[in-house]
Amino acid sequence: MRKSFVSSFLVCSILGLTMFGCSSNADKPSSNAPINNQKSVLPTEEIVPLEFHPVTTEQEVRKLEKSTIQEVVKEKEIDHGKAFIFKKRNDSSLYGGYQRNQILFDLGKIGDQAYLGITSITHIEFQEKLVLRIQGGLGANYPQTNYYLIESGVPKPFLQADGHTLEQDLDQDGLKEVVASEGTPALTSIYKFQEPHFAAASVNKALGALSVLPKKDDTLLFEAYYKNEAKPKTFVYTKQGLKLIIK
């Protein structure tokens, strides 16, 4: 995710050198961008507002019996506990787990065993909250990131985002947002934490763009690609919306 996005999603599909990577939508159809017979419409304003809508998570955290674990494939110390990725018997999926003292928690499915190579475990501070971040793979170059809030040593569902993700303070207000991008053309969403839940906005829908690629510079920029337009337009996130900075 640290690599810079290339300047065109067409080049991306050939070279695969974007920050998030280029993934296929064959595994999971998406509907938050202009596709098929929908028109790609250039924005008429220099600041385009974003519409944020509440999102719910399908994550479930349960107590875990040690006998359920066939094999632990990755683990990491987190907040005086241990986060891990494990296999269950007679199951092709990978699962997230968390242990505090002698208590085990099943964090649910985080990916498939075939994509073990792109799994990762990290922990982050998100708006002064300790958050466990587990990435798994559901398809070829199609990751999914699960975030769990750790409170008093107990993991709780927080956010599940499809695609390559990163956490960034987009408007420099001291509070981080989550940016997720998936597919070719790239579908990009911004998740904002609004206590007690997240709300999400589709950047593609707001900009009427066929493809939107986050681009790491001094800040995080968004390159929007339009039908019959050779060059992308570049936007930066502000509290008022997405501001056009390069036409």
Structure description:
By secondary structure, the protein is mainly beta. The protein contains 2 helices and 19 strands. Strand 18 (233-238) and strand 19 (241-246) form a beta hairpin. It is elongated. Residues 1-38 have low confidence and may be disordered.
In short:
By secondary structure, the protein is mainly β.
Task: Identify the notable features of this structure and list them briefly.
247 residues; mainly beta; single chain; five-stranded antiparallel beta sheet
Whole-number average pLDDT?
85
Beta-strand proportion: over 45%
Shape: elongated
Structural class: mainly beta
Describe the main β-sheet briefly.
5 strands, antiparallel
Q: What is the number of beta strands?
A: 19
Distance between the termini: 26 Å
Q: Rg to the nearest angstrom? A: 19 Å
- Listing every helix as H and every strand as E from the N terminus to the C terminus, the arrangement reads HEEEEEEEEEEEEEEEHEEEE
